[in-house]
Amino acid sequence: MKTIEExxxxxxxxxxxxxxxxxxxxxxxxxxxxxxAREVDVVTTGTFGPMCSSSIYLNxxxxxxxxxxxxxxxxxxxxxxxxxxxxxxVFLGATALPPGDPGNTN
Length: 106
What we know:
- The chain contains three helices and six strands, in the order H-E-H-H-E-E-E-E-E.
- The chain has helices at residues 4-13, 21-31, 33-39; strands at 18-20, 42-44, 55-59, 73-76, 79-82, 89-93.
- Strands 1-2 form a two-stranded parallel sheet.
- A hairpin with a 2-residue loop joins strand 4 and strand 5.
- The model has no long low-confidence stretch (mean pLDDT 88).
């Protein structure tokens, strides 16, 4: 069994074998668990896509004259965002879509 220190050293040297979780499934099927574990150093399981809880909290700062973004909803480039957290704060979900966007239909 490899230690974390050994794997980290291989990463630093640029010699680590890194595969995705999907690739690892195929490697295990072809070579078996033991050989796959010996050959592969790192299995990635992350995603680059937005997840349902991904979001951004924006604070626009006070203008002169002062404004209040309220009413529960505002639109940023046609995409709805939640207001009402504070005077000039907006919460935008990463998966939010504009009304009428084809992604909003079943």
